[in-house]
Design goal:
Elements lengths: L16 H7 L6 E6 L5 E6 L3 H12 L6 H12 L1
């Protein structure tokens, strides 16, 4: 399933209600735009609980061949 949304003159995009509901997004939550290697962009919910954030980072890192320092550096860049 796919949804469209227009970019406003201020660079803002409204996330369609069906997408917010599917992702469990609520007002005030943070999302992350992740660029994949093929140039596509994924919208990812940023967990508000630091433990959830760490677990999400572990899951993403499990398929990567990086040492712990590289993984932490990559995560710090994405969350800042």
């Amino acid at each position: 399933m796919s949804y469209e949304s227009k970019v406003t003159s201020r660079g803002q995009v409204t996330i369609p209600k069906a997408v917010r509901e599917q992702m469990g997004l609520e007002e005030g939550e943070t999302v992350l735009f992740r660029f994949d290697d093929d140039g596509s962009v994924r919208l990812v919910r940023v967990p508000s609980d630091p433990r959830e954030r760490l677990e999400a980072a572990r899951e993403r890192g499990s398929s990567l061949e990086l040492n712990a320092t590289e993984l932490l550096d990559r995560e710090r860049e994405q969350w800042s």
